[in-house]
Amino acid sequence: MRIFGKERHRPSASWRQATDRAFTLIGDGRYEDAGALLTRAADLEPWLSESWFNLALLHKFRHDWEQARSAGLRAVALLDRDTGAPDWWNVGIAATALQDWPLARRAWQAYGLRVPGEARGSAAAGEPTGMRLGSATVRLSPEGEAEVVWGRRVDPARLLVQSIPLPSSGRRWGEVVLHDGVPHGERTTGRGHSYPVFDEIELWAPSPVPTWVVLLDAATEADRDALERLAAEAGFAAEDWSSSVRLLCRSCSESSMPSDEGDGALHLDPHDHSSPGHPGPLGHMTAGGPGDLWVAERECGLAAPAGLVRGLLDSWVADSPDSREWRDLEEVC
Predict the structure, then answer these.
(1) HSE-up of 179 (CA within 13 Å, CB side)?
(2) Model-level pTM?
(3) Burial letters for 275-313: b for 16+ Cβ neighbours within 10 Å, e otherwise?
(4) Is 246 exposed, middle or buried (0-12, 13-18, 19+ CB in 10 A)?
(5) Which residue in 154, 59, 57 sits closest to 104, CA to CA?
């Protein structure tokens, strides 16, 4: 087979050695040294799509999106198959990071995905919305104090965060994060549904809505649920962290873990705070889960504007003053 006048062949031993050493360095976080080796590999085998795929991958790790797009386009130009190549997925991520919507659409289509609106003239150049990819989870800060939260996929590379992340993550409800394409783990439900866990790459769109923590006295689960409904009706969110957050070790977080069925009530969808060590069997339990005795004092996360949050809590109490109280409201993110 000939490509641009060159016969396609197996990569040389020098190419393989440079590439293998580069990925060892990437694993150690030595991106500059790895980049020099992968550039050398591309000089040795410029007709090999893997040379440019590897460079595009490195630039993705470095969040150098212009270079990732450039190397990715060189990789796909050398492909010998029509659809399904991961090279196109990396191009789609880089294009999404750069808001290069025509290229993002082209990448998802070339991978084999159907993009709504692709045949509507000028609309095809717009943001690839409406792909109906459903719910998923994303691991915030995957290299640090990781936390898995729930959200809705906007497109193949972005997720809208619908849990209220813990303040340690530095993320907020309503933010859009750019995520990688290969899942690391999944969350399964009793009904047989499975949701992938993607790793966050970077924040794509921040949220203006601050995160608050408040202590509630809620006599029953119904009282707690009433606050979550009240916040949702106002267009914001409340989440009972006492029952929605569980501690998992990293290896468990990256495996297939059971989760309650999502039905719109976020306290039924545990999100996970990862720890380097194994917390033991109790660490895998969701606090306040079904069958547990109800504890009236709850630590609750709230996502709402400063001008609304106290009024929201006061309205919640006013609806049932004998069974509800709040105190110690604090903005945390």
Answers:
(1) 32
(2) 0.85
(3) beeebeeeebebbbeeeeeeeeebebbbbbeeebbeebb
(4) buried
(5) 154
- Report residue 231's pLDDT band, with 50, 70 and 90 as the boundaries: very high
Q: Is 104 exposed, middle or buried (0-12, 13-18, 19+ CB in 10 A)?
A: buried
CA end-to-end span of the chain, whole Å? 57
Average pLDDT value over all residues in the chain? 85
Cross-strand pairs, 150: 137
At position 116, the amino acid (one-letter code) is P
> What burial letters (b/e) apply to 58-87, b meaning 16+ CB within 10 Å?
bbbeeebbebbbbbbbbbbebbeeeeebeb
* Distance set, CA 7 to CA 1, 47, 52, 88 (Å): 6, 9, 17, 23
CA distance 204 to 318: 39
Residues in the chain: 333
CA 267 to centroid of chain Cα atoms? 19
Domains in the chain with CATH codes? 2-125 (1.25.40.10), 133-333 (no CATH)
Whether 239 has a pLDDT exceeding 50, the answer reads yes
Can you tell me which residue has the tokens 């289509």? Answer: 109
Find where tokens 């410029």 sit.
46
Q: What is the DSSP letter of 135?
A: E
The answer, yes or no, to whether residue 99 has pLDDT greater than 80, is: yes
Token match 């030595």: residue?
A: 30
Q: Specify whether the CB–CB gap between 97 and 65 falls below 8 A.
A: yes
- If one compares 174 and 119, the residue with the highest pLDDT of the two is 174
